[in-house]
Design brief:
Number of helices: 7
Number of domains: 1
Helix content: 10-25%
Length: about 300
């Protein structure tokens, strides 16, 4: 089965046709970004643009994009962000969805989480998000951007804070912002010092302990299992929409397994930027940061995680 679902924030393609005794299903989230240059007004070579793009923001010196610099920046943004997020999570299929026959045995695939980033001109095509980008004057080292406004330095690794031992915490801002575009919030949203109903961009929301500050959704570059939330949410929708006769494709001779494989009622988590950091029911698809192979029903029931075949 190859099926695509379209969400407001991305498209999701589930591919189970590739499955065999050693190959899991692929779940690819495609995020289409339309980039738009912010240049000095009236065709000038130099000008200013305010932090956050707000009238109240501090004016920063900017210069006009050249075609060469623009093409290079876009390519670097897409390539490096996709490399960071693509293929880093496996969802452990704990309820036996999408069973199939291989080598005369039933196998239950886990889900490999992929990301496909597509970046184009804002003026061409249909995009999930439009991203404005300024090119800072060489005299500027800081611009306060956000998930829909970037500067040319956001693809660089810069210090975002210090840990409890005074060590610099480094981050490439664009990989953090891609997390937001996928639906992830800051690491400490929902904790007493960063209530979900308050200012979720406050400094405390980026983490107050070392472990949280080092998260990519804090101030650092570390991926955590909970960052697989967008893929988990998409999988819940796939399962909800597929009737058992379509999902499992099992012959009548294995009817005894159908009751074991029958999916339960699922709750779909709405996909919206900065919301998916809240606790998710992970019992159906448990995120892992290590590869594990498809399991037989007996292996699943025994709780084995198959790391080699």
């Amino acid at each position: 089965m190859k099926k695509t679902l379209q969400f407001a924030t991305f498209d999701a393609l589930l591919n189970t046709d590739i499955c065999d005794a050693r190959t899991n299903a692929d779940l690819t989230l495609t995020l289409r970004l339309g980039f738009r240059q912010i240049n000095p007004e009236k065709g000038a070579a130099k000008g200013t643009y305010n932090d956050y793009g707000k009238p109240s923001g501090k004016p920063r010196k900017i210069i006009r994009w050249t075609p060469e610099e623009w093409a290079s920046w876009k390519a670097n943004f897409i390539s490096s962000a996709q490399t960071f997020w693509n293929g880093k999570f496996w969802l452990s299929n704990t309820h036996g969805y999408f069973g199939y026959i291989a080598n005369k045995s039933i196998y239950l695939p886990n889900i490999w989480c992929r990301l496909n980033l597509i970046g184009g001109e804002a003026s061409a095509g249909i995009h999930h998000y439009l991203i404005d980008v300024v090119r800072l004057d060489p005299s500027e080292s800081l611009f306060k951007s956000h998930w829909k406004l970037f500067d040319n330095l956001d693809i660089n690794s810069v210090q975002k804070g210090k840990d409890s031992k005074g060590k610099a915490i480094m981050q490439r801002a664009h990989v953090h912002e891609i997390g937001h575009l996928l639906g992830l919030g800051h690491v400490d949203i929902g904790k007493p010092h960063c209530p979900a109903t308050g200012d979720t961009n406050a400094k405390a929301c980026y983490g107050i302990t070392d472990v949280d500050m080092y998260s990519v959704m804090g101030r650092g570059m570390q991926l955590r299992p909970e960052h697989a939330a967008p893929w988990i949410s998409a999988m819940k929708t796939f399962v909800e929409q597929e009737p058992p006769s379509t999902v499992y494709k099992l012959p009548q001779s294995v009817d005894p397994f159908l009751q074991f494989l029958q999916p339960s009622t699922l709750v779909v988590i709405p996909l919206a930027p900065k919301k998916l950091n809240l606790p998710l029911p992970l019992d159906h698809f448990i995120p892992k940061l290590t590869r594990h192979y498809p399991r037989t029903p007996a292996e699943l029931e025994s709780g084995l995680m198959i790391t080699s075949r």
